[in-house]
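Whether sequence alone determines local backbone shape is best considered at the level of individual chains. For completeness, the protein is quoted in full, as a sequence line and a line of structure tokens:
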Amino acid sequence: MAVVPIEKGGRAAVTYWRVVERLGNYTLMHFPLETGRTHQIRVHSAYLGHPLIGDPVYGAGTSVGVNLPGQALHAWKLRLQHPVTQDWISVTAPPSPAFTKLLEVLRRRITATGSNV
């Protein structure tokens, strides 16, 4: 997967983003999607020079001291329209323990250094 101009065979993929919390050199982001391409958030983040923590394909391969089972990406809410009934279905899920641990570690680092640079 990659960012490819439409005139060169790429398909439209629209990702919105919002900063939720700055964590030193890391940032907790919210990504509402207009489209749903494979690896869309991961590809767009890496393309902009800000890959997801723990992303083995598009990331920088750096460690932050938390053993993640994959990339630091959590779908906290999914909303879709049922293909037969056309009813809207909304599902939410809490973050995994590993994701929560990552946030705790990054927040502690900021507190310990007294900086949020």
